Predict the 3D structure of the following.
Amino acid sequence: MKSFKREIPYNQLPELPPKKDIQSKNVLLKTISASRVLAQLNGALINLPNPTLFLDTIHLQEAKASSEIENIITTNDDLYKTLITEAKTENSATKEVLNYKKALWLGLEKLEDKPFITTNLCIKIVQCIRQNEAGIRSTPGTSLKNGRGEIIYTPPSGIELIQDKLANLEKFINSDKGIDPLIKMAMMHYQFEAIHPFSDGNGRTGRILLLLYLKTSGLLNIPALYLSDYIIKNKISYYKSLQAVTESNNWEQYLLFMLDMIEVTATKGLLQLEAINHLMATTASKIKLKLPKVYSKELVEILFKLPYSKRQTLIDAQLGTPKTVGNYLILLEENGFLQSTRVGKEKIYINYKLLHILEQNDHA
Ligand SMILES: Nc1ncnc2c1ncn2[C@@H]1O[C@H](COP(=O)(O)OP(=O)(O)O)[C@@H](O)[C@H]1O
Ligand SMILES: [Mg+2]
């Protein structure tokens, strides 16, 4: 470890797995409790009548928070309005967040064809986030700085060296070394960030990989977990614990941080899922009672797919003619289920109670 100097490319970054056994008793105990909650969340998600219904919303939150860690800041309002009206936004942060969400979907889609995390997949993801053709960095000069502008870490330099380290990481991820999958996920994340293969977008790509890994490893079949919420709230510890692995080979501190992230966000996810499910069930029965002609299961699902909807969404779902579904929305607003707002030429309807549940969990 003595070879590490903050301003010098860390070409000696050790390959995975580390030489010494890092699965200490503390780490294993935390792995058990984190796995327990994660399995509960997985069960709750799988048992939903429509398991993927909330994915869009959760991924949008994840995209917003993960981007915010990198100081790309937008509001829920701008985000949802842009998404729902498909309007071109002038807000570059909103654009980046929507690209992040696209990149997450792209990753999940690619896993359907080939269930492995590979270097190529990482490149596709970062290109989608950054909307360019950039590949692995080939010019020197990438370094990480703290708030005072001091260099705290300089990743390995030289494209071939970076490729070799990525190849080792890929092999590690996809082979069984008798390491618990959650611990492996955390190790993968450190290694990816330490290699820092791109000139930008490493943090966001690395956090997308966490969700992809949870999916491929079968720990979370429906990757609906809002992980970045925890990182944003504990950003200093996140950076410090990554740095502690590099500077003092302190895997324990880092692994406990990552495992706590899983435990805390899965616990919150469970509560949020319960709250949303409950709201959906009560909303459905109230609509049935007050507006029996408007009610259908499909309609209620649309109102919960994203907290914002518009007339076209209902038309696309074949719920009726433009006039009929327009009336549905008016009636739903008159009866207090939705609140409308105008965005340009379009009127959009907010499921404000759902939005409230989502924003309760928001760090902002
Ligand atoms: N000491 C460190 N060692 C390795 N990686 C780090 C360290 N501190 C922070 N990071 C990672 O680097 C990311 C920032 O890298 P960057 O390429 O700018 O990502 P993005 O473009 O997504 O902002 C952080 O989010 C974190 O994941
Ligand atoms: Mg950045």
In short: The chain has two domains: 25-271, 279-360.
